[in-house]
Amino acid sequence: MNDHTVKAFDDELHLLVAKISEMGGIAESMVARSVTALISADKGIGQAVVAEDKMLDALQMEVDDQVVLLIAKRQPMAQDLREAIAALRMATDIERIGDLGKNIARRSFQIEDNLPPKKLLRGLQHLTDVSLEQLKDALDAYAGKDLVKANAVWERDDEIDSLYTSLFRELLTYMMEDPRTITYCTHLLFCAKNLERIGDHITNLCESINYMITGDYQMTAEAAE
């Protein structure tokens, strides 16, 4: 390829990275605000999150179209091809994270003013904070092509699983002790499960980063050393 073609190709890859980063920022905001809507019983915030999902869907379609066009026009090989494929996979995972945020927001419409004990809300908020921190770190690892950081996030998935399990047990205990709490505790259980699934998508992001850099989807603890 001549210099002009190389520069054009690099510009297209940079545009992909920018769109993935934009999608990540939107998904991160959707999840954070969906939990805020749930905790504060704010339907307005919840409705805004649900509406924003269309923007995320549109961006995913743009990424899909751009990757297909890039492969058809440039016929990239080796790491260039892996970057295009990784962007495609990451766009799908980020879009699904947004969907899970939307699902949480919809729960805020059903809880209304019947808010659960603050102790339970603190547990849900902590699970949210950890999930969002890991999502941000995964997106930073992608932007910086930082394999060590991606591996560190991947290894921390157990933290989200442990927090989810702890909150799950706590919610079940509340429901058994006071049947009046069953309705809102059930909503919180679904929201906590959505956050746990977000953690799974974050590990997928890290595996895509690993593939982009090394050509291997399989990640190991030793890879971060």
What does this entry look like structurally?
The protein is mainly alpha-helical. The protein has one domain: Methane Monooxygenase Hydroxylase, Chain G, domain 1 (Up-down Bundle). It is built from seven helices and no strands. The chain has helices at 3-40, 43-74, 78-111, 118-143, 147-155, 157-177, 182-214. α1 packs parallel to α3 (78-111), α1 runs antiparallel to α4 and α2 (43-74) packs antiparallel against α3. The longest helix has 38 residues, at 3-40. It starts with a helix and ends in an 11-residue tail after the last helix. The model has no long low-confidence stretch (mean pLDDT 88).
Based on the model shown, name its key terms.
single chain, 225 residues, Methane Monooxygenase Hydroxylase, Chain G, domain 1, 0% strand
CATH class value: Mainly Alpha
Q: What count of helical segments does DSSP give? A: 7
CATH homologous group name: Phosphate transport system protein phou homolog 2, domain 2
Distance between the termini: 36 Å
Number of DSSP strand runs: 0
- In CATH, the topology is named Methane Monooxygenase Hydroxylase, Chain G, domain 1
Structural class: mainly alpha
Mind describing the biggest β-sheet? none
Give me the Rg, rounded.
Answer: 19 Å
What is the 3D form?
elongated
Q: Which residues sit in consecutive blocks of at least 5 with pLDDT less than 50?
A: none
| Portion of residues within helices | over 70%
| Beta content | under 5%
CATH 2nd-level architecture? Up-down Bundle
How many structural domains in the coordinates?
1
Q: Give, in order, the helices and strands.
A: HHHHHHH
